[in-house]
Amino acid sequence: xxxxxxxxxxxxxxxxxxxxxxxxxxxxxxxxxxxxxxxxxxxxxxxxxxxxxxxxxxxxxxxxxxxxxxxxxxxxxxxxxxxxxxxxxxxxxxxxxxxxxxxxxxxxxxxxxxxxxxxxxxxxxxxxxxxxxxxxxxxxxxxxxxxxxxxxxxxxxxxxxxxxxxxxxxxxxxxxxxxxxxxxxxxxxxxxxxxxxxxxxxxxxxxxxxxxxxxxxxxxxxxxxxxxxxxxxxxxxxxxxxxxxxxxxxxxxxxxxxxxxxxxxxxxxxxxxxxxxxxxxxxxxxxxxxxxxxxxxxxxxxxxxxxxxxxxxxxxxxxxxxxxxxxxxxxxxxxxxxxxxxxxxxx
Length: 347
Known about the structure:
Layout: H1 6-24, E1 26-29, E2 33-36, E3 42-44, H2 57-65, E4 67-70, E5 77-81, H3 82-92, E6 96-99, E7 104-109, H4 112-118, E8 120-121, E9 138-140, H5 141-160, E10 169-173, E11 180-182, E12 186-193, E13 197-204, E14 214-230, E15 239-240, E16 245-251, E17 267-269, E18 284-285, E19 295-302, E20 305-313, E21 322-327, E22 333-339, E23 343-346
Parallel strand pairs: 1-6, 2-7, 19-23
Antiparallel strand pairs: 3-4, 5-7, 8-12, 9-11, 10-14, 12-13, 13-14, 14-16, 15-17, 17-18, 19-20, 20-21, 21-22, 22-23
């Protein structure tokens, strides 16, 4: 038997060594869109992967413990080039072969002001099945979107406490939708970030994570309504009528509390409102029911007898407010609740 030369052995080892290394690498798909919760200030390597698909528990824990970088500011987004993400993953985790199908990787962080009331895991969505549907049947992309839209509409109706008509509501799907998805009941998690976008996670009722049982992406709810905008500059504390307002068809969800067509005027501005600005509830108030200096009746029950007198209101007020007033005869300061009339009912 002829023994191979040292040169041939070295060449053979040089060819086999990369193959051995490659065989030990784990190919993992990198998410094109990452969502970071508001209270998370760092991006961890585990955020880039679906950790449920990682077979090695040790590797999953290592990914969760090492920081990739700082998270964006609340409500903001960072955009990484895929080559940078791939090289950084390979530097810290040579055992991983990062599979990135997009040119960029987007990282978004939730907004503290609106994340809490709108972040919730909803109850399961019952699947509509017939006796002819086999277990684990799949629905197409059109049916998937239709179901997600209806669920999101019901969810937003509860969160915004406003009736959203189905025929006027739709979702813009901003992440690639699945071509087919499981018919089994869904668990859906919503988190709002940015102006009106929703980060959505869907998990079908299967212990197996796959493209037909899990979906994560970004959607934008749209409901076009006639919203009130300032037809001119409105001064601070100005009482204005409907002729100062122009209604425009805009997306209701792009604003926190927009004033819609049908609201009664006059209103009083609580801040300067620039011409063209959408008028939101926080910017206006109803005119006071009584104004400071106005003289009204005051009543009090003494020994079962109602006694009336005249008082001067000391501040602008609405019905139901507790205010002080001055007795016009004695000058005494009295306190009571403002009632319709106007009448001040004294304590």
